[in-house]
Amino acid sequence: MKYNLDIKVASKKAWVDAVMADFDQFLLDHADCERKASSFAMGMVAKYPDRLEIIPELIETAIEELEHFQQVYQLMQSRQLVLPNKIEEDPYVKALLQLCHSGREERFLDRMLIGSVVETRGAERFRLVSEALEDPDLKKFYKMLWTSEAKHGNIFVKMALHYFPEKMVYDRLDWWMDREGEIIDALPIRPALH
User: Which of 18, 117, 139, 145 could form a disulfide with 126 if both were Cys (CB 3.0 to 4.6 A apart)?
Assistant: First the structure.
């Protein structure tokens, strides 16, 4: 069953062109994104240890994201790329987080839905990268990632539905998808996941 909503603003072809023109830079950013995604899931465990029903799924998601980081790092090594000393701030995620409610329950819901939104955008972009790549191994890798990100987009909504009424979750998720489209549309095009 699909839980997440589709994105409302498609990525521009110019973004795909930028990624293909500087794929090494994209890989460096992609590695950072996988580290941050793993950290986000574990951060949710640390912030909400009382949410017992979702802790196993959050841990599993964190492990999967860390495995993706490992796989991207292996790709980087094969291309003789070195991890940067500093993880750069992601303007996309920063803009999303600035729109979060501040109350504990409202913020919990928003963070779960932001998780879904980010993963759903990741799935769309990994699909575009997979379709644009010529190397069959890279194509296969990004297709696998696209599937995984789509699954994670569903998981965060499913987890939110444990604690909040369906109408509340989907009304807020629809609101988030509108905001996400505005944010992604306003960001400069660069060889980065967001």
Answer: 145
Q: pLDDT digit string (tens) for 18-42?
A: 999 999 999 999 999 999 999 999 9
Residue 147 CA to residue 130 CA, distance in Å, equals 11
Q: What is the pLDDT of residues 129-186, one digit of tens each?
A: 999 999 999 999 999 999 988 889 999 999 999 999 999 999 999 999 999 999 999 9
Distance (Å, whole) CA 103 – CA 138: 43
Tokens of 151: 């699954």
CA distance 140 to 145: 9
Name the pTM for this structure. Answer: 0.94
Q: Which residue has the tokens 């029903």?
A: 53
Q: Cα separation of 172 and 101, whole Å? A: 11
User: How many angstroms from the chain centroid is the CA of residue 17?
Assistant: 20
**Contact indicator for 96, 7 with CB cutoff of 8 Å:** no
State how far the Cα of 138 lies from the Cα of 187, in Å rounded to an integer. Answer: 26
